[in-house]
Design a protein that fits this description.
This is Acyl-CoA N-acyltransferase. The protein is an alpha+beta fold and 248 residues long. Helix content is 27%, strand content 25%. The chain has a seven-stranded mixed beta sheet, sandwiched between helices.
């Protein structure tokens, strides 16, 4: 029996105005969004709608390039950002990205997302955490991460309800010590290091591949793997996360 392989990578064109997404904006996430759970007294998480937040996000990261230092990608223009959000986030039901809103000021404070989400396996990963300079070293990061953990790990029968996931993981470039420490402060347990997990763009910090590698110009990333489990949540982690949310 013969076979064929007709795979072609999807084309991403520069007609970015087609990438703002539908109106009303269809988040297309595999789980329901419980917005009452995705909120604390000081921050709320709301879907990242490009027509509202894309340019404001770019203004922040272009003014402070270090914000994208440890992300696997860089976005500097709508031509780059909008196709990414449409193709790799909205069109992928495993992903959702939220805008972090600081409630006292009403300002857009950063982004945070869920990636590699599986409803069949009840797991997800917190990813693409970016807190803008004005809100760094404040309550914003702990409240945003804490709200997302509550949304993921609280049971569906709780009030407000969660998703009842069994596993929430956090991966970070092993060189990104602040990210690893931030996860550990929130209660994530270190599981180990995964080698060569991501091919990075040429300007990123990483490890050079072996000679003959098909993508030799692009470095690779080793990732620290951390996680919180459903049983952790029921055995003290819920209270720990609430303390982190309430911390002054």
């Amino acid at each position: 029996m013969s076979f064929t392989n007709s795979y072609k990578p999807s084309a991403v064109n520069s007609g970015f105005r087609d990438y703002y997404g539908p109106d009303p904006y269809d988040v297309n996430f595999v789980f329901p969004l419980h917005l009452e759970t995705l909120e604390t007294t000081r921050v709320k998480l709301t879907p990242f709608i490009p027509a509202i937040y894309a340019q404001a996000y770019l203004d922040q990261v272009n003014a402070a390039p270090a914000l994208q230092r440890w992300l696997p990608f860089d976005h500097h223009s709508l031509d780059e950002l909008l196709p990414f959000v449409e193709t790799f986030v909205r069109a992928n039901s495993e992903c959702v990205v939220f805008a972090i809103i600081d409630k006292p000021s009403g300002k857009f404070a950063g982004i945070i997302g869920l990636i590699y989400t599986s409803d069949a396996n009840l797991r997800t990963e917190i990813g693409w955490v970016v807190v803008f300079p004005t809100f760094q070293r404040t309550y914003v990061a702990s409240n945003a991460i804490g709200a997302l953990l509550r949304y993921c790990l609280e049971l569906p029968t709780a009030s407000p309800p969660g998703l009842g996931l069994r596993r929430v993981q956090w991966t970070a470039n092993v060189r990104n010590e602040p990210s690893v420490k931030a996860a550990q402060r929130m209660g994530f347990k270190m599981e180990g290091v995964m080698k060569w997990t991501i091919v990075l763009s040429e300007e990123k910090e990483g490890y050079k591949a072996r000679e003959g590698d098909p993508l030799i110009a692009k470095p690779g990333r080793d990732s620290a793997m951390l996680a919180i489990y459903g049983e952790d949540w029921e055995n003290g982690m819920k209270e720990h996360v609430q303390k982190m949310i309430d911390r002054v």
